[in-house]
Amino acid sequence: MKNKKFFIETYGCQMNFSDSEIVASILEEGGFGSTKDIMDADMIFINTCSIRDNAEQRVRKRLEYMQFLKKKNPGLVIGMLGCMAERLKTQLLEEEQVLDLIAGPDSYRDLPRLMAEVESGRKAVNTLLSIEETYADISPVRYDSNGISAFISIMRGCENYCAYCVVPYVRGQERSRDGISITQEAETLFHRGFREVTLLGQNVNSYQWIQDGTKTAFAGLLEKVAQVNPLLRIRFATSHPKDLSDELLQTMARYKNICKAIHLPVQSGSTSILDHMNRGYTRDQYLERTTAIRSFLPDCAISTDIIAGFCDETEEDHKETLSLMEQVGFDYAYMFRYSERPETLAADRYKDNVPAEIKDRRLREIIDLQQKLSYQSNKKDVGKTVEVLIESFSKRSDEFFSGRNSQNKVVIFPVTSNNPGDYVRVKINRFTSATLIGEVI
Ligand code: SAH
Ligand code: SF4
Ligand code: F3S
């Protein structure tokens, strides 16, 4: 099996993309090589997501294609990793004959052994969750990287048990990673030419690391990473509204290289739905936090996640979501229709009782409103001069560079003598729905 090549494809959130880099590192250590060409691979790993039913359906479809590849190359090994592997465990082996290997998010160190088992003709499974695994000592292979921005996973798991959410079941207990290994990883990345890191966790605000009796909370960690170098930009995701502290906002204000963008998922604008969802804050408490953001960080972008049509959501509740969106004026939002996930609190205790067509109509209204808000947000940027970190050539044309401003908006502008990794000042002249367009001044 050694000297064989692996290919990883990733679905789901940023944490999964970060995990795929850890998997690549473990496989390379185990003597396997990576390939970017799926046709050239001896093993294909699919790192999966369970967050909504359609995320799992996409993976099921993809497995049909894997079956086709395996017919052409019977020696091909197909492995499923990540949250769907964790959720369905050995049941997958019965349902999906094409799979040879199943590994949950905390068992990636076991992959070389699992591969050996596959080699000896057995199917291999490890879906044990851990209370301590953080892969702190593994330096991720930047598998699909632009060489400029990278993810650093700072914690794993989640214990918030939002009623709709599968994450606590598939990712296990919340645990924070050793803070020193995090700053070291940021330093190494900087010296390798990276200029932006995103610190990742399901709820970064509850990060906590205790060493020699001293506690480091998220604000302290962020400060240490910001001090690595003023030319290294820091982002983070995701913040939970119930734990977003003033101290964090003050830290953000003190460091220019901590990007002024906060992703603060609200889910609903109705206090009774928030309570039903077990989110741990009310509408007013959420609004108080966004007001605090605006007062500490006047130029900070605020983005969010919204779920349409959660159990028992009335028309009144839905209108409260729309009015909260207007009130905050989100710069960006990810918007979803509620999808019942087996074994969650909501699946056990509530009825998924908002009819599909009403869910869809409410989602439509939410999306339409957000389009208007994003338009207003982009319009406000016209005429401004913003600092942009150049990431690459624009996807559409080699005559344009593409990068982002501190607020995480994509900015494109005609190519100059600069290179990816440089900071430039760009005057914004116009915009499309997803992009600001300008010129270097
Ligand atoms: N930890 C993050 C969110 C992780 S999941 C947080 O708490 O903010 C990303 C988003 O998926 C969630 O914010 C939520 O909006 C959405 N989501 C999660 N479960 C869902 C479900 N069952 N149906 C629809 N959307 C869901
Ligand atoms: Fe899911 Fe809630 Fe945890 Fe986010 S905080 S991952 S929505 S349980
Ligand atoms: Fe999906 Fe797992 Fe992330 S369920 S959203 S890949 S933590």
Give an account of the 3D structure.
With 441 residues, the protein is an alpha/beta fold. The chain has four domains: 122 residues, Rossmann fold; 115 residues, 2-Layer Sandwich (Transcription Regulator spoIIAA), CATH 3.30.750; 102 residues, Alpha-Beta Horseshoe (pyruvate-formate lyase- activating enzyme); 56 residues, Nucleic acid-binding proteins (OB fold (Dihydrolipoamide Acetyltransferase, E2P), Beta Barrel), CATH 2.40.50.140. Helices cover 35% and strands 23% of the residues. The chain is built from 14 helices and 21 strands. The strands form six sheets. A six-stranded parallel β-sheet has the order 2-1-3-4-5-6, sandwiched between helices. A five-stranded mixed beta barrel has the order 17-18-19-21-20. Strands 7-10-13 form a three-stranded parallel β-sheet, sandwiched between helices. Helix 2 links the parallel strand 3 and strand 4. The longest helix is centred in the last third of the chain and has 24 residues. The termini are far apart. The site of S-adenosyl-L-homocysteine has 16 residues, from strand 15.
**Sheet having the most strands:** 6 strands, parallel
**First-to-last CA distance:** 55 Å
Question: Helix count, per DSSP?
Answer: 14
Low-pLDDT runs: none
Number of domains: 4
Q: Helical content, roughly?
A: 25-40%
Q: What is the total tally of β strands?
A: 21
| CATH class (first level) name of the largest domain | Alpha Beta
Give the name of the CATH architecture of the largest domain: 3-Layer(aba) Sandwich
Bound molecules: S-adenosyl-L-homocysteine, iron/sulfur cluster, FE3-S4 cluster
Mean pLDDT rating:
96
Structural class: alpha/beta
In CATH, the homologous superfamily of the largest domain goes by the name Methylthiotransferase, N-terminal domain
CATH topology of the largest domain: Rossmann fold
Q: Indicate the overall shape.
A: globular
Sheet with the most strands: spatial strand order: 2-1-3-4-5-6
Beta-strand portion reads: 15-25%
Q: Mind telling me the C-alpha Rg?
A: 22 Å
